[in-house]
Design brief:
Layout: E1 6-10, H1 14-25, E2 29-34, H2 45-56, E3 71-75, E4 88-91, H3 97-110, E5 116-119, H4 126-130, H5 135-139, E6 141-146, E7 155-160, H6 166-179, E8 183-186, H7 195-213, H8 217-223, H9 234-242, H10 246-257, H11 263-266, H12 272-279, E9 292-297, E10 300-306, E11 313-314, H13 322-329, H14 331-336, H15 340-363, H16 367-378, H17 384-391, H18 393-402, H19 409-413, E12 420-423, E13 426-430, E14 436-438, H20 448-454, E15 459-460, E16 464-468, E17 473-478, H21 487-503, E18 506-509, H22 522-530, H23 534-552, E19 558-560, E20 564-567, H24 569-576, E21 579-583, E22 586-589, H25 603-613, H26 622-633, H27 641-646, E23 655-657, H28 663-675, E24 686-687, H29 691-706, H30 712-726, E25 735-736, H31 738-753, H32 756-768
Parallel strand pairs: 1-2, 1-4, 2-3, 4-5, 5-6, 7-8, 17-18, 18-19, 19-21, 20-22, 21-23
Antiparallel strand pairs: 6-7, 9-10, 10-11, 12-13, 13-14, 15-16, 16-17, 24-25
């Protein structure tokens, strides 16, 4: 099988540039080529300009700035010989068959034997692309359809041709899965493949029904959001995000390639409002605004919404439909509700899910691929067939019959049953032949959701579970709201340490939530502080310090496996673990100053210790102190696991997993490898400068205050932090123990939690999700 060690991307537009950046994120060298502009002084200027944009992109295209150095920009006239040593060549040029074929003819003259060529097309069938091309090219060609932005969107649709080599497809699949972190879905060569075919129907039906029923954009998005497990943007917010001007292009492609009797074509509309918005530059967030827009006034920035009837902007309206409130409790209650929100839900669900059921055998090998494509490509919580099971197949069929809509054969086959079932702890899906088959994971994938179907937790409480995941490894799973840490989680972590000590080899801390942990439950702290329950707060802080310290010095390895946000207390778990196996998209940091506190569960202690002991640091007592102070005092958050390593939240021996589905298996493997001859770390006293270091930090802080970059209360909080990090009343000749640093943390934390301005920050964060600058 081909090993992909170097790649090329042809076309440096939004998609091509993003694909090149993400290949570089995998540590692979990539050539990025584009056209030569007429009369250009710099023949590489298109690709070079794209690379410059990628370096500045927000959200970031590169997981670490140094990855940009792996991308070599060039042009499609002078630098085609660079393709000679590329193992994979991705074409991302204009969506025009003639342009693509002309590009392939050039590529064919320069590529090496056995190199793989793929197109990122989303609208052109593979058969049209390879027509008339040499057999050698057809054997090495496939479609690899990335979703935008390529770093963050997990779906990758692969389409193979009738002559495509199986090992070429396997090589691309393996690389995109393991190295790029993609959820690879195999599609049949049909228009729009899977996700855009069904997603296009969802958007069209949602847009048309909202206009027909007279819904506001807020009402439509509230219905087409949380109740169905669709993104919070709903459909109009999503169109603003991806660009309203894409709609006519997708519609034109579908009209060109789909038969006239296709359900999508029969329901396709070309609203005058959409044409007018595009003509006037209201294309969404990238334009002047879209269905929503932000406007500036003397009072500041405010949001406005588009009135679908008048085409004019107005102040946002709060959705007050009773069906929306019912939908927050139960999707079926929303679908049964008689108001226009319920009718809207019924119409869109009927068209979208019927279309998915009718198409599934034509566009995919099974319903599992369809569901995965919609989860990963459109961020649906449940795919269409999982939604049908939640609604109830028989209830949905009854609804179709009420609306006088035909029932597709696959849906009829599921009557009286479900599309998924669990048999003896194993998940099975309904095949197109009416028989159930097991859902098979790719080798190297281990999901906690599968373990849960087959077993019961070893221990549990209201906020966490402890699972036996085999081979002597246990897994602690948080399950509080946003995985915020509380007393129950600390209690079960303590119990997990005892359990592994008695009967196991290692502990993995992992969950399958959107975020590893957003930190301590500050709502509980605010509640206790408002009632002056100071002993309770003191006890919880002391308990956290003790449990995390016991975790650090446990006689077996504890491996943290974060994904998403690992903030505050969540980051402190990483800092106290024997090792970390992080998902590449881990966003970690000690952010307590944002709510007027300092890290109080050992985070300050661990961060200053790591910086002092860092062999690569500058000499002298102040550089490590200044860096740790800046990291915590500015509430810096790593934007990737690679950045977390640079911030010393991860260490050199810690691992990074690109594919979220492989994280638990990788963490378990790391835990077992460490367990073979594990020796817990020994305490390492450090030397800190004491009051002289704190004074130096204070001078810098004073300057920031004078410049208006630090508020009055920032100075107070940062002053407490400076005392902790500098070691309190000591000097550089004395050794500082962990216990001394933990005591300083408690002293600072307990003083700040009693401050009214800290309580105001906590309350503001809970109310708005944003820090208060008081």
């Amino acid at each position: 099988m081909t090993e992909i060690r170097k790649a090329a991307v042809l076309g440096s537009g939004v998609m091509g540039g993003g694909i090149a950046a993400h290949i570089a994120n995998a540590g692979v060298r990539v050539v990025l080529l584009d056209i030569v502009p007429k009369n250009a002084n710099n023949r590489n200027q298109v690709a070079e300009a794209a690379l410059d944009r990628l370096k500045k992109a927000d959200p970031a295209a590169f997981m670490h700035p140094k990855n940009a150095g792996l991308v070599t920009p060039g042009n499609l006239e002078d630098h085609l010989p660079l393709l000679a040593d590329c193992d994979w060549i991705v074409e991302a040029v204009l969506e025009d068959v003639a342009v693509k074929r002309a590009t392939y003819e050039k590529v064919e003259k320069h590529r090496k034997e056995g190199s793989i060529v793929s197109s990122n097309t989303s609208t052109i069938p593979l058969g049209d692309l390879i027509e008339g091309m040499p057999e050698r090219f057809q054997r090495d060609f496939c479609v690899t359809h990335f979703f935008n932005p390529p770093r963050y969107m997990r779906l990758l649709e692969i389409v193979r041709g009738p002559k495509t080599r199986a090992d070429a497809v396997a090589a691309v699949e393996e690389f995109c899965d393991v190295a790029l972190g993609k959820g690879v879905v195999h599609c049949k060569d049909t228009p729009g493949f899977i996700a855009n075919r069904i997603g296009g129907m969802w958007i069209q039906s949602a847009l048309g029904a909202a206009m027909d029923l007279g819904l506001t954009v807020e009402e439509a998005d509230a219905v087409m959001g949380r109740p169905f497990g669709f993104p919070r943007t709903g459909v109009f917010g999503l169109l603003d995000l991806v660009g309203i001007d894409l709609m006519p292009h997708i519609a034109a492609s579908m009209k060109r390639t789909l038969p006239p009797d296709d359900l999508y074509i029969r329901n396709l509309r070309d609203p005058e409002l959409i044409r007018k918005m595009i003509a006037e530059g209201y294309t969404g967030r990238k334009g002047k605004g879209g269905f929503y827009r932000m406007v500036k006034s003397a009072e500041g920035r405010s949001k406005e919404s588009l009135d679908l009837k008048t085409g004019e902007y107005r102040k946002p309206l709060r959705p007050e439909l009773e069906s929306i409130r019912a939908g927050k409790r139960d999707l079926r209650a929303l679908l049964a509700h008689p108001d226009r929100g319920g009718e809207y839900a019924r119409r869109v669900a009927a068209l979208t899910l019927t279309y998915a059921a009718a198409l599934a055998p034509e566009i995919a090998d099974d319903i599992v691929a369809v569901d995965e494509a919609m989860r990963l490509g459109y961020a649906w919580k449940w795919g269409p067939f999982e939604l049908l099971d939640r609604i109830g197949v028989d209830a949905f069929i009854a609804g179709l019959q009420q609306q006088k809509l035909p029932v597709p054969p696959l849906l009829e086959m599921a009557r009286g049953r479900s599309f998924y079932r669990v048999t003896e702890g194993a998940l099975e899906f309904l095949g197109v032949d009416g028989r159930y088959r097991p859902v098979v994971r790719r080798p190297g994938v281990l999901l906690l959701e599968d373990i849960k179907r087959k077993s019961k937790p070893v221990a549990r409480n209201g906020s966490a579970n402890l699972w036996d995941i085999g081979d002597g490894v246990y897994c602690l799973e948080f399950r509080s709201k946003m995985n915020a840490l509380d007393g129950d989680i600390l209690d079960l972590l303590a119990k997990a340490l005892d359990t592994v000590k008695r009967s196991g080899k290692a502990l993995v801390i992992y969950n399958e939530g959107s975020n590893f942990s957003v930190g301590a439950n500050v709502g509980l702290a605010l509640f206790a502080a408002n009632l002056a329950l100071w002993p309770l707060i003191e006890e919880l802080e002391a308990k956290g310090q003790m449990v995390f310290k016991n975790m650090k010095y446990a006689p077996f390895p504890v491996v943290a496996a974060p994904s998403g946000m690992a903030l505050g207390g969540g980051c402190e778990i990483l800092l106290h673990s024997a090792a970390v196996q992080a998902h590449a998209e881990t966003y970690a940091g000690l952010v307590e100053v944002g709510v007027g506190l300092v890290p109080g569960w050992g985070g300050s202690k661990e961060m200053i210790t790591r910086h002092v002991l860092n062999k690569k640091r500058a000499s002298g007592p102040m550089p490590p102190l200044s860096t740790a102070f800046e990291t915590i005092g500015l509430a810096k958050v790593a934007k990737s696991a690679a950045e977390a390593r640079e911030m010393l939240i991860l260490r050199e021996g810690d691992g990074i997993t690109m594919n979220r589905d492989r994280l638990l298996a990788d963490a378990k493997a790391k835990a077992l490898a460490l367990a073979r001859d594990y020796q817990p770390p020994k305490p390492q006293p450090i030397n800190l400068p004491g009051p002289t270091g704190a004074a130096a930090l204070g001078l810098a802080l004073h300057d920031l205050h004078l410049q208006g970059k630090a508020t009055d209360y920032d100075v107070v909080v940062a002053g407490k932090l400076a005392r902790v990090l500098s070691g309190g009343d000591t000097d550089i000749t004395e050794e500082i123990t962990e216990e001394k640093l933990l005591g300083l943390e408690r002293e600072a934390f307990q003083a700040l939690i009693r401050e009214p301005r800290t309580l105001a920050r906590i309350e503001h964060m809970l109310d708005t999700g944003k820090p208060l600058r008081n």
